[in-house]
Structures are given as structure tokens and as C-alpha cells.
């Protein structure tokens, strides 16, 4: 792998833009994963909560309502 000093300015700029695109994609996948996990936890909470007192987490604490 070439170091930063060994690359032409245009090549270096292209590599940095590609890395930013990769980073944006990684952040998007992480956000989707977090949202899916929040939904999964809310379903689990609602299922456990029904036995005691009907109160939905998806409609309460986490949704900001």
C-alpha cells in the first residue's frame, strides 16, 4: 500500500472520498441495526408486560410520547 506522500493529489482525494462513502454506508447500516434492535426489545418488553399490566413500551417510554 502506498503512503499518503507517494500518491498524487488527485488519487489521494479520490481515496479519501471513497473512504467517506464507505463510512456513510457503515453508519447507515449501524442506524438500521439500532432501530431493528429497539423494535425487538420493545416487542419483548410488551410481551412480558402484558402478563402484569397492559402498557406498551413502543407507545411509551422510548417513543417520546
Task: Give a verbal description of the structure.
It is built from one helix and no strands. It has one helix at 9-50. The mean pLDDT is 79.
Element layout with pairings:
Elements: H1 9-50
How would you describe this structure in keywords?
65 residues; mainly alpha
Total DSSP helices: 1
| Shape descriptor | rod-shaped
Mean pLDDT: 79
Counted beta strands? 0
- In N-to-C order, the SSE pattern is H
Q: How much helicity do the residues have?
A: 55-70%
Oligomer: single chain
What are the segments in which pLDDT stays under 50 over at least 5 consecutive residues? none
Q: Cα-atom Rg, whole angstroms? A: 22 Å
Largest sheet: none
Structural class: mainly alpha
Distance between the termini: 52 Å
Strand content: under 5%
Short description:
By secondary structure, the protein is mostly helical. It has one helix at 9-50. The protein is rod-shaped.
Amino acid at each position: 500500500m502506498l503512503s499518503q506522500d507517494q500518491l498524487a493529489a488527485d488519487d489521494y482525494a479520490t481515496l479519501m472520498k471513497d473512504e467517506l462513502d464507505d463510512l456513510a454506508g457503515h453508519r447507515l447500516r449501524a442506524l438500521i441495526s439500532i432501530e431493528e434492535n429497539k423494535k425487538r426489545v420493545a416487542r419483548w418488553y410488551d410481551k412480558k408486560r402484558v402478563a402484569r399490566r397492559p402498557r406498551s413500551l413502543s407507545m411509551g417510554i422510548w417513543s417520546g410520547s
